[in-house]
Design a protein that fits this description.
With 207 residues, chain A is mostly helical. Chain A has helices at 3-17, 24-31, 35-41, 45-66, 74-90, 92-96, 98-133, 143-165, 171-187, 192-204. Chain B binds a DNA duplex (30 and 30 nucleotides) through helix 3.
Amino acid sequence: MTEKQILEKSLVLFNQKGYAQVGMRELARELSISPGNLTYYFKKKEDVLSALLKQFSSHNTQLYQTFQNVKPTNANFLRLTRSIFENQYAYRGVYIGNQFVQKAITENNLFEYEEVVIRRKDAYSDIFRLLENSGHLKLKGDDVSFLVAYMTLFGRFWITEATLFNKVPKSDEVISHYIHLLAKQLSLFSTNVGLISIEEFLKVDGS
Amino acid sequence: MTEKQILEKSLVLFNQKGYAQVGMRELARELSISPGNLTYYFKKKEDVLSALLKQFSSHNTQLYQTFQNVKPTNANFLRLTRSIFENQYAYRGVYIGNQFVQKAITENNLFEYEEVVIRRKDAYSDIFRLLENSGHLKLKGDDVSFLVAYMTLFGRFWITEATLFNKVPKSDEVISHYIHLLAKQLSLFSTNVGLISIEEFLKVDGS
DNA sequence: CAAAAAAATAGTACGTTGTACTATATTGTG
DNA sequence: CACAATATAGTACAACGTACTATTTTTTTG
């Protein structure tokens, strides 16, 4: 048995039933090992959550960095967001049970987590500035802070909303729906060039 | 001991520590009754949650209805939203622990809850149409469905975002912040009359 | 290769949780 | 007063997270 196998199975179960509904004994049974053996790899259930969140987070930061290597267009921004959404979808089981995440934060590693959020806000700030400089967005006054706030909330809770009613939402349909909403929001701040870029994205990538 | 007293104390504790972190024994102790007596009023912990959600929901629908009796202006819409936000803030302890809500939904009263969401969407649809007719908003194409989707997600998860990092967010500050974001969003679809109405609201009511 | 050390696995047990059940006390009612 | 209804308390049980110990397997080392 490896940690990797345990995390994989955990994620599947968390996605299926939710973090709170998956017990350590059940997880051990699914892995065909004893509960005692499971605690050898992860002393606490919360440690499984933390490890998965770490995986998720590192994959996410990787995705953000890819935007540095592409042309700063609205279409590429939407592509970036969609890949991030796909990642969130993959980890929805650990992402949604947020009061456990909250508890973990307040008790253990608050600072690290808050740091991630601040970094993400900065990243969005940079991205919107880039899109402005490339002539895709026209931003004035508090437009940037508004868009950053929008992305922070929308980009975090779309998956929660989606799973709140559809126990097993279809990945493509759901993501497509929320990406379209984002595209609309973006269009409200777009130049003509930006609008064309959005339309191009929706034609090629939007289902 | 009355149900009312139990619900009041529950809400305080849920707001302070979160639904999952408050046990039935602790709740009984705080009420100076025995655990057995507590289960006489609420057989299951989930029943306490349900009762509180019912209170919250009925208060909310009441608030929505008040909009029928006022002039359909952007300012009044923002006032309505703020009173709704205040209600959500008051019940944040039951509102945030959403995977328990989710569990309750999937197991028991899915339909009822889904119905509430649909009704709320219709209500927003009506409100935006009213604001259009009164010359405060100019809406075309998929603007209405976009705004409805925006209000649904934003109006549901702002409090979750707020409490995720500030364990005890100050009511006024937090609500004011999110209302300002909504005002900005609204202004993107506003006529001149609508913009003036928003500015008037922010001057009078925005802190 | 054999012995020692390390890593992995299993089993048991403890405290806490939600909650079902029963017994006792209080209140209301004819 | 007597009896029913309501309210309160106490106990107990299954499930949970998890700490602890014992056993087996694997790796390292002389």
